[in-house]
Amino acid sequence: MVKIRLARGGAKKKPFYSIVATDSRKRRDSGYIERLGYLIQLLVDKKLGLPSKKIE
35-55 burial string, b = 16+ CB within 10 Å, else e? Predict the structure, then answer.
């Protein structure tokens, strides 16, 4: 089964998340099928990049 998850990247206390489509049996940050977007969630600035055509 394919699920949409957040894969964590970035440095310690400065997280960067990639929104990915991955197999439900794999670990959070292991290989994924396709990268759908990104999420940068810092205290001052929050950015979300998510093209809706890829999700459909």
Answer: ebbbeeeeeeeeeeeeeeeee
